[in-house]
Amino acid sequence: MKPTAVLINTSRGRVLREAELIAAVRQKRLAGAVLDVISQEPPTGREAVLHMENILVTPHVSYISAESYRDLKQRTVRNALAMLRGDSPADLVN
Question: Which end of the chain is least crowded, N or C, by CB within 10 Å?
Fold first, then answer.
């Protein structure tokens, strides 16, 4: 990534190596980051990533919007209808 880039992670905290992210920001190899998740969930408050000037950590709620709630409700109904028909739901985890 370019040194002017800002990394955004809203997926899972452990997809990043936080120590390497912190080093990249400190060394100006990366401008910063916005994280909705971190590797330690729930956080203790002592995590180094929470105390970095150019890294913003949100409280794992960045997905919340009117659109995301609408989509969540629609997906829930589609999955319920699929199961009532005897089909597997689209969001089956196991």
Answer: C
pLDDT digits (tens, 9 = 90+) for 19-66: 999 999 999 999 999 999 999 888 999 999 999 999 999 887 777 889
Spatial distance between the Cα atoms of 18 and 24, rounded to a whole number of angstroms = 10
Cα distances (Å, whole numbers) of residue 32 to 10, 18, 24, 52, 86: 15, 12, 8, 9, 47
Q: Tell whether the model's pLDDT for residue 2 goes beyond 90.
A: yes
Q: Which residues are catalytic?
A: 12, 41, 60
Q: List the domain range (segments joined by +) for residue 53.
A: 1-62
53 and 36 part of one domain:
yes
Pairing of strands 6-9, 32-35: parallel
Same domain, residue pair 32 and 10: yes
Backbone phi, psi, residue 10, to 5°: -120, 10
Residues with Cβ within 8 Å of residue 62, at least 6 apart in sequence: 10, 36
